């Protein structure tokens, strides 16, 4: 890390553009809400600054690139592949939480402030972007109205009263000049923290990655060699590149090391920050080279001692007394299922977070025909990720019924002895659940190996109604719905009226994203028994209000509300989720079978995006039969299961496979979704029309030629009528290609069908090129 004077580059002109000005005035309106509305409303999504040529915010990224001379602000690596824009203070819900009532507001007012924006490489992006600790547990006061107005009216993007009245723990490369107070660079490239600020900054931005250590070691070697050349050459002057690194990567770390080396060589406990002067003083000494070599030796010895002392790793040092947050494991990156129920071998990979919402958790929607294994995947994942105590509490779990038996899929092999679910966490260790057939004690059929999952897990079956009362807390409460179809959820209203004021407002903020599907609300209110949805009648905010009891909303909405409140209840329970701070930052995994159950089409279109907005840090994995639920899912966030009638590796005549790398469906019509790989319907026409189509395709498969059958001829003419093919020869070639496609498509697998489509497209294109 190096100190950079921010004012040496002027703020980009984007801050004077209409988009930026509108956002600043929206900020004034947001903080100008009445107290109740502000406490129940999240701040709006900030701009995700893009470094693409067609982006209106390109100028911001370019200015940051120039300010830091093409390097990452935190690790100093060269940004050869472009940059991302990082908000030093998070745009909302900063943790650790100091005051629950205002936690969601920190630091919304700096989301688009020039002083808060930094260039960052992908590898330095914090795993916890909300983490921003301050000393003495005291954050800056919330902004006054006049500060917000002044910020909105100026065109340079600078927050008027900066720096804030607080003491951040993380080191700021544009504010903390004396970086040597917080960091120490060793000869082999290891960056050490001298104090809490240095150690937490290294941890937060992962500044001791192996590639960084190697690069810093090379810079250290280069720098020490240049110093030695200077010390041994009587006529040499101190090389500019040695003292003024400019664009070269990792020279901020080198200057920290050089300062310590010169201090040790000169016997100074506090050497001057003027390194050129100190270097000249050393050169004037007769034993300058010996002193410098001794200084390198001292630093190497300190590095060796660091490794001796840190048989505990740096992270545990931080836990031991420096106040680092507790870390949880990441979401699983991949789940492999082997021989579980009807699934011989299935791999489910979670996608990366959406690029336009890097702080959001990834999610996945699983599609497939009945009996393809959608619910089975959810069961296997839930069993593998829940703790053994929760698994024991579920009634009726029989491992003998969970291990694949080939005879149920048409095979003649003996029943298999075990099933396995392997959970991968990227670079960390894996977790494995092994399920064996058990003769006497069914609980003995489950064995867990590897790391323990730290994320709260929730699992819900297709039937998600709730009681009029509240269920008592049991450890399997949040997963039993998936395994026990008759299980009813708790009445959410009982829990909502019992919450503290701050927690109720926090839940209301999350619910607003889901209520917006139904039309939204102004605020939620409650008395000792009920919760009320309060909304304005008409467009006048000061006009009359409606006050609707929560119990009177639609049944579909109630089922979503019951499930969502059950998830929030679990996330907020310190016994289940000890690291909980806010619903904005809470992490977890929610498995939902048939997400579309009980929902109106308006809800189906928005349910996935609504849930993901309500709990942005939670990963939702759901199954569905409905194309409307694909709305809200991006590229790589959909998985399709297909039953294949061909012999598998274990000789099964029928098995399930996955279709991945599906196209982005954002702009597709419902008919396109239904007839594409997502749902694999050959037609959305009536039963009679499909029957007539099937009869024609049967004839084609038997080799009937169009010229010999009027029905076949009419059908092919209809298929090719819309194409611009006036030439009879071209018309015949197109019809022939279509005929062969229709004849073959009913007997091939979905993966082979893709190849068949490509072949047909090429043949039609070749015919059209002759027009």
From TrEMBL:
Stretches assigned to the AAA+ ATPase domain: 360-645
GO MF annotation, one: ATP binding
Protein origin, superkingdom: Bacteria
Biological process according to GO: double-strand break repair
InterPro entries listed in its UniProt record: AAA+_ATPase (IPR003593), ATPase_AAA_core (IPR003959), Bact_Antivir_Def_Nuclease (IPR051396), P-loop_NTPase (IPR027417), Rad50/SbcC_AAA (IPR038729)
Gene3D superfamilies (UniProt xref): P-loop containing nucleotide triphosphate hydrolases
Entry-linked PANTHER family: ATP/GTP PHOSPHATASE, EXCINUCLEASE ATPASE SUBUNIT
Protein name, entry field: AAA+ ATPase domain-containing protein
Species in which this protein is naturally found: Falsiruegeria mediterranea M17
């Amino acid at each position: 890390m190096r100190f950079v004077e921010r004012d040496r580059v002027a703020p980009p002109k984007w801050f004077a553009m209409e988009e930026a000005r509108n956002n600043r005035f929206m900020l004034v309106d947001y903080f100008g809400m009445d107290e109740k509305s502000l406490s129940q409303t999240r701040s709006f999504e900030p701009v995700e600054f893009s470094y693409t040529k067609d982006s209106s915010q390109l100028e911001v990224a370019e200015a940051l690139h120039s300010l830091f001379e093409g390097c990452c602000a935190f690790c100093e690596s060269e940004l050869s592949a472009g940059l991302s824009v990082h908000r030093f203070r998070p745009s909302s819900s900063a943790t650790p939480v100091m005051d629950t009532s205002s936690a969601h507001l920190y630091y919304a007012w700096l989301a688009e402030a020039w002083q808060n924006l930094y260039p960052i490489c992908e590898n330095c992006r914090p795993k916890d972007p909300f983490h921003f600790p301050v000393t003495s547990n005291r954050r800056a006061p919330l902004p006054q109205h006049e500060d917000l107005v002044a910020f909105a009216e100026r065109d340079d993007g600078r927050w008027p009263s900066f720096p804030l009245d607080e003491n951040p723990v993380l080191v700021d490369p544009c504010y903390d000049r004396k970086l040597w107070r917080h960091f120490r660079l060793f000869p082999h490239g290891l960056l050490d923290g001298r104090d809490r600020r240095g150690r937490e900054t290294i941890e937060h931005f992962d500044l001791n990655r192996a590639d960084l250590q190697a690069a810093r070691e090379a810079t250290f070697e280069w720098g020490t060699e240049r110093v030695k050349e200077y010390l041994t050459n009587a006529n040499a002057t101190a090389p500019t590149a040695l003292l003024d690194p400019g664009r070269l990567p990792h020279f901020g770390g080198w200057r920290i090391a050089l300062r310590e080396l010169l201090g040790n060589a000169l016997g100074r406990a506090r050497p001057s920050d003027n390194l050129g002067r100190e270097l000249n003083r050393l050169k004037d000494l007769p034993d300058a080279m010996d002193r410098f070599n001794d200084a390198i030796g001292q630093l190497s010895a300190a590095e060796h001692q660091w490794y001796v002392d840190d048989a505990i790793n740096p992270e545990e040092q931080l836990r031991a007394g420096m106040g680092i947050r507790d870390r949880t494991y990441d979401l699983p990156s991949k789940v492999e299922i082997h021989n579980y129920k009807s699934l011989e071998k299935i791999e489910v990979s979670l996608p990366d977070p959406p690029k336009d919402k890097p702080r959001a958790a990834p999610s996945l929607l699983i599609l497939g025909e009945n009996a393809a294994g959608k619910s089975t995947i959810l069961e296997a994942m839930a069993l593998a990720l829940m703790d053994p105590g929760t698994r024991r509490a579920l009634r009726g779990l029989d491992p003998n019924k969970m291990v694949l038996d080939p005879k149920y899929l048409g095979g003649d092999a003996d029943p298999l002895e075990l099933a396995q679910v392997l959970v991968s966490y990227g670079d960390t260790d894996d977790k494995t659940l092994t399920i064996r057939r058990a003769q006497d004690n069914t609980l003995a059929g489950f064995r867990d190996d590897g790391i323990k999952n730290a994320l709260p897990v929730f699992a819900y079956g297709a039937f998600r109604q709730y009681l009029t009362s509240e269920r008592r807390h049991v450890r399997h409460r949040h997963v039993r719905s998936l395994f026990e179809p008759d299980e009813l959820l708790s009445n959410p209203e009982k829990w909502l009226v019992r919450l503290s004021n701050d927690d109720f407002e926090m839940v209301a903020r999350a619910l607003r994203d889901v209520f917006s599907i139904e039309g939204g609300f102004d605020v939620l209110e409650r008395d000792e028994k009920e919760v009320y949805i309060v909304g304005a009648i008409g467009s006048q905010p000061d006009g009359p209000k409606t006050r609707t009891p929560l119990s009177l909303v639609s049944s579909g909405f109630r089922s979503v509300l019951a499930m969502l409140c059950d998830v929030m209840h679990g996330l907020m329970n310190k016994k289940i989720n000890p690291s909980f701070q806010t619903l904005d930052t809470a992490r977890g995994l929610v498995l939902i079978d048939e997400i579309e159950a009980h929902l109106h089409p308006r809800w189906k279109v928005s349910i996935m995006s609504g849930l993901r907005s309500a709990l942005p840090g939670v990963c939702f994995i759901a199954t569905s039969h409905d194309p409307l639920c694909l709305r809200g899912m991006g590229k790589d966030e959909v998985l399709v299961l297909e039953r294949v009638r061909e012999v598998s590796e274990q000789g099964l005549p029928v098995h399930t496979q996955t279709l991945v790398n599906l196209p982005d469906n954002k702009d597709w019509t419902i008919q396109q979704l239904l007839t594409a790989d997502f749902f694999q319907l050959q037609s959305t026409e009536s039963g009679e029309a499909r029957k007539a189509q099937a009869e024609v395709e049967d004839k084609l498969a038997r080799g009937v030629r169009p010229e010999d059958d009027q029905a076949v001829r009419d059908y092919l003419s209809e298929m090719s009528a819309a194409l611009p093919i006036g030439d009879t020869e071209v018309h015949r070639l197109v019809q022939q290609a279509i005929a062969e496609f229709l004849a073959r498509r009913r007997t091939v697998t979905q993966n082979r069908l893709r190849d068949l489509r490509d072949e047909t497209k090429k043949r039609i294109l070749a015919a059209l090129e002759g027009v």
